[in-house]
């Protein structure tokens, strides 16, 4: 289908998502086999609860080695200290040369330094051992499990995502010219999908002081009350100031909701090239009207896209003759 210009509206809406302010994605900080047999999405967890473990045998061995190293360093330090104390009178009387006694003192000082080094190594080994336990930082719910029992994890591997029961935020992107309408503390009605007749009364928490370099828009955060009808992940809209609405509306185009897909965490559409080759293109979405979505950046009027995307469609594929409309 050919993308068409969105009709101008008197009240342009900015789209956003409800998020938990205390959402945390836990990643592995040690390597090994993951054990998380009882973990499941939707599971309620407590702060400090162990959600999963990573095979600790290597960490345990390193910890025992660090303890042994500290014991050896302390024994050497005690021996060196004994020599210094014992030979002090001999050095004072001249029975022991100054150079020999100074060598004993240097040996003792080096032994003290090795004890400090061994203590630091033991502390690091204890930290590495603690990394084998994946602990929830909040009271909340497991919303995503990224690994299975028996998977191999490396440092940086996402394991679990948990959301707390604290403050909810509605986050959306607004252009610079609209920021004056979102002053911290000001009330903002949020229209959530499925309950547009019951706007949620939120208050502006603030504006993230850095624009997205691709869209030149700023993220606005609105605090929402905790109630049974508002949950993280919900889609919603807020009205932009009217002056901005008229300036912003002509830049948007509309596409069918069925044309928009998520690939690798990016929202986009498949653009049909002149050679009928498909290219996945990231887009930023605006308001929704029925089964049509406004695209505020990433797509221009007159371009051709797939109106409905099959899950098997891949970037770079060639469209069969007559498959698009």
UniProtKB/TrEMBL annotation:
<dbReference type="GO" id="GO:0015562">
    <property type="term" value="F:efflux transmembrane transporter activity"/>
</dbReference>
<dbReference type="Pfam" id="PF25967">
    <property type="entry name" value="RND-MFP_C"/>
</dbReference>
<dbReference type="Pfam" id="PF25917">
    <property type="entry name" value="BSH_RND"/>
</dbReference>
<dbReference type="InterPro" id="IPR058625">
    <property type="entry name" value="MdtA-like_BSH"/>
</dbReference>
<feature type="domain" description="CusB-like beta-barrel">
    <location>
        <begin position="172"/>
        <end position="242"/>
    </location>
</feature>
<protein>
    <submittedName>
        <fullName>Efflux RND transporter periplasmic adaptor subunit</fullName>
    </submittedName>
</protein>
<keyword id="KW-0813">Transport</keyword>
<feature type="domain" description="Multidrug resistance protein MdtA-like barrel-sandwich hybrid">
    <location>
        <begin position="24"/>
        <end position="158"/>
    </location>
</feature>
<comment type="similarity">
    <text>Belongs to the membrane fusion protein (MFP) (TC 8.A.1) family.</text>
</comment>
<dbReference type="InterPro" id="IPR006143">
    <property type="entry name" value="RND_pump_MFP"/>
</dbReference>
<dbReference type="GO" id="GO:1990281">
    <property type="term" value="C:efflux pump complex"/>
</dbReference>
<dbReference type="Pfam" id="PF25954">
    <property type="entry name" value="Beta-barrel_RND_2"/>
</dbReference>
<dbReference type="InterPro" id="IPR058627">
    <property type="entry name" value="MdtA-like_C"/>
</dbReference>
<feature type="domain" description="Multidrug resistance protein MdtA-like C-terminal permuted SH3">
    <location>
        <begin position="252"/>
        <end position="305"/>
    </location>
</feature>
<dbReference type="InterPro" id="IPR058792">
    <property type="entry name" value="Beta-barrel_RND_2"/>
</dbReference>
């Amino acid at each position: 289908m050919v993308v068409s210009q969105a009709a101008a509206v008197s009240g342009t809406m900015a789209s956003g998502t409800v998020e938990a302010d205390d959402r945390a994605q836990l990643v592995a900080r040690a390597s090994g086999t993951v054990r998380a047999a009882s973990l499941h999405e939707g599971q309620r967890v407590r702060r400090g609860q162990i959600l999963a473990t990573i095979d600790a045998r290597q960490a345990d061995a390193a910890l025992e080695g660090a303890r042994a190293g500290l014991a050896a360093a302390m024994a050497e330090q005690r021996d060196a200290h004994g020599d210094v104390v014992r030979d002090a009178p001999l050095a004072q009387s001249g029975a022991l040369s100054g150079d020999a006694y100074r060598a004993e003192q240097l040996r003792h000082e080096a032994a003290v330094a090795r004890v400090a080094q061994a203590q630091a190594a033991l502390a690091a080994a204890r930290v590495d051992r603690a990394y084998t336990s994946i602990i929830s930082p909040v009271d909340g719910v497991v919303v995503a499990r990224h690994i299975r029992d028996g998977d191999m994890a490396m440092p940086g591997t996402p394991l679990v995502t948990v959301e707390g029961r604290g403050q909810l935020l509605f986050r959306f992107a607004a252009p610079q010219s609209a920021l004056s309408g979102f002053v911290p503390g000001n009330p903002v009605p949020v229209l959530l999908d499925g309950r547009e007749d019951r706007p949620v009364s939120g208050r502006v928490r603030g504006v993230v002081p850095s624009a997205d370099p691709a869209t030149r828009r700023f993220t606005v955060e609105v605090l929402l009350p905790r109630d049974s009808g508002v949950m993280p992940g919900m889609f919603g809209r807020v009205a932009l100031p009217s002056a901005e609405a008229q300036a912003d509306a002509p830049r948007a185009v509309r596409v069918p909701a069925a044309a928009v897909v998520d690939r690798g965490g990016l929202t986009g559409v498949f653009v049909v090239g002149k050679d009928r080759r498909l290219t996945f293109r990231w887009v930023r979405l605006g308001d929704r009207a029925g089964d049509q979505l406004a695209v505020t950046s990433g797509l221009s009027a007159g371009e051709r896209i797939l109106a409905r995307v099959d899950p098997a469609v891949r970037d770079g594929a060639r469209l069969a003759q007559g498959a698009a409309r």
